[in-house]
Amino acid sequence: MNFKIIRFQEHGDPRGQLVALEENKEIPFKIKRVYFMYDTLKDVVRGHHAHKSLEQILFCVHGSCRIHLDDGTETAEILLDKPYEGLYIANNLWREMYDFSEDAVLLVLASELYDESDYIRDYDEFLKFIGKKK
Ligand code: TYD
User: What is the residue extent of each domain of the chain?
Assistant: First the structure.
C-alpha cells in the first residue's frame, strides 16, 4: 500500500524542539494547501473518502489520533502521536481519521488546492475507480 511514516529531523536544543519542512525537500511534493483539525469530538470519524490525484502528509502536531487506510485489497491502522512523524498518503487510498485525543491537532500538507472533483466519497465508487469492484 502506498503510504509511509516519515520521521522528520528534530532540531532540538536546550530551548526545545523544532521541525522544519520544505516543499520538494522533506516534503516530496509542492505544498499547495495546509489545513488542520482540532477540537474534534470524541468518537468522531472524519475522512471517509479517497482522492483521485491528491497526495498528503498528515501530522498529529499535538495529542494523538489514528488513521485507517484501505487500498481496496489491504487495510492499515496507523497511530499518529509524535509531532515529528508524518504519514505520507498517496492518491487512491481510502482514509478515515478516528480516535482523536481531546487535545489532538491534525495538520495536513496537501499537493493540490481544494477541489471537490478530486474526492471519491462513496466506498463502492472508490473500488470501481481503482478497478477493484467485485
Ligand atoms: P471535509 O472534507 O468534510 O473534511 P474531512 O473529510 O477531513 O472530514 O471538510 C469539511 C469542510 O471543510 C467542508 O465544508 C469542506 C471544507 N474544506 C475546505 O474548504 N478546504 C479544505 O482544504 C478542506 C480539507 C475542507
Answer: 3-8+20-133
Q: Which CATH number fits domain 3-8+20-133: 2.60.120.10, 3.30.1280.10, 3.40.228.10, 3.40.640.10?
A: 2.60.120.10
Residue 35 Cβ contacting ligand 1 at under 6 Å: yes
Ligand 1 near 82 CB (within 6 A): no
Catalytic residue list: 49
Are the beta carbons of 97 and 49 closer than 8 angstroms?
Answer: no
64 near 79, Cβ under 8 Å? yes
Note the pLDDT of residue 109. 98
Decide: pTM greater than 0.90. Answer: yes
Question: Is the predicted pLDDT of residue 46 greater than 90, yes or no?
Answer: yes
Between the CA of 42 and the centroid of ligand 1 the distance, in Å, is 19
Atom of ligand 1 nearest to the CA of 47: 6
- Beta pairing, strands 33-37 & 75-80: unpaired
CA of 46 to the centre of ligand 1 (A): 10
Q: Which three cell numbers stand for residue 79?
A: 497511530
- Rounded to an integer, the average pLDDT of 119-128 is 97
